[in-house]
Amino acid sequence: MTTSHSTSAQLKALDRAHHLHPFTDYADYRQQPGRIISRAEHITIIDSDGREYLDGMSGLWCCNLGYSQPEIVAAVSEQLTRLPFYNNFFQCSNQPAVELAAALAELLPEPFNQVFFTNSGSEANDTNLRIVRRYWDLLGKPKKRLVLSRQYGYHGSTIAAASLGGFDFVHGQFETLPYVKHIQAPNWYAYGRDSSEHDFGIAAAQQLQHAINQYGADNIAAFIAEPVQGAGGVIVPPASYWPELQRILDAHDILFISDEVICGFGRTGEMFGYQSYQSKPDLITFAKAVTNGYQPLGGVMLSDRIAEVLTSGGGEFGHGFTYSGHPAACAAALATLQIMRREGIQQNVKERLAPHFQAGWRALGDHPIVGHVRGLGLFGSIELVRDKASGERLGRDSEAGAVCRQACLDHGLVMRAVGDSMIIAPPLVCSHAELDELLRRARAALDATAAHFGVSG
Ligand SMILES: *Cc1c(COP(=O)(O)O)cnc(C)c1O
């Protein structure tokens, strides 16, 4: 199949010659060129060779409503015709930005009534650091400077966001911000198998208390966390974890930033991930699914406590992006939220899709190379092992993940590998039958992976 100007082979050659991709081993990509995605329909993506794949990753956690939403297209197109751009600096605003700010304030429960727009999750987390610092300065507590974060958290790729993130290999490639400190991830399978999930959840939360004891609450500005760590491997924490974390946060005057870039907008079965765990954020990061991936948009929702201080005086807040509140991006988000509300997307995930999907996903636990299964709402992860009891891996570190990822593609399914975990996050508009087909292909890929490593069932 050819695209408008080039054959598939020409495109792949040009891609390798000129295009440096995010999070890619460039030497490796020269040997193993990728796929050019040309078209998509509903939950299927189609590459430049005409091969079709069920998209088990919703794009990159963003196309929660799938790829066929003409209302969003129409909203963006209409907005580009009327007002393609105007900035929100200098006492100006635009209609979609205003309407989206109001729509988000209505969507979120109290006390979230104010929003600051960015173009991405990374920029939103940079903005969080600026807001947190400003908040404590305005309150006359300038010593509160440190920000606590977690290993294997993902918060984006600007210098600040990558510092907040918890990946050592990334930290090794630049100078991280000195005021960000990391605590352990609540990954029972990796760190806690010698205790019960409940006890491990408490112990993992108490890592926050240890950090507070070490650095002093007077020096700690904020704690940032994803309700469920997504890019770190869909690390669903034990049920005991969040209540204990919240108890510790409440006991010390530390702001809590809930990074909802993946968990927000229905992924966990609630509208926002923090609602699945009854935690109490002061700031909320959003991006990705807010526009269904149709336009780049992110932002921070501020609780009244923060907004009141920020708007109480103290001069200009010296922060913002040219495209903060871009009219076309905001129009896409408004259309997305409207579809979500009208179709009852979040309720459908909670009541129908998640129970069905999680039952099928957990059933993969009986496969000979699956050592552990995690999941919540409409996402999940499985650990690939050779030996279920010891957790011995199938090959070199991350080798089984790479093999299984390719086996998924061979079976027409996009799943992602994080080390030796396979992760899935299907669009929230799948039918039961489509979820069953995703799971059938996932099992076939597991069979192929087991065969590759000589494990029989
Ligand atoms: C993707 C992601 C980000 C970064 O968003 P970008 O739009 O890629 O900058 C931040 N936080 C979480 C939890 C994410 O998954």
From TrEMBL:
Keywords tagged on the record: Aminotransferase, Pyridoxal phosphate, Transferase
Cofactor(s) needed: pyridoxal 5'-phosphate
GO molecular function: adenosylmethionine-8-amino-7-oxononanoate transaminase activity; pyridoxal phosphate binding
Residues in coiled coil: none
Family the UniProt entry places it in: Belongs to the class-III pyridoxal-phosphate-dependent aminotransferase family.
PANTHER family named among the record's database cross-references: ADENOSYLMETHIONINE-8-AMINO-7-OXONONANOATE AMINOTRANSFERASE
Descriptive protein name: Aminotransferase class III-fold pyridoxal phosphate-dependent enzyme
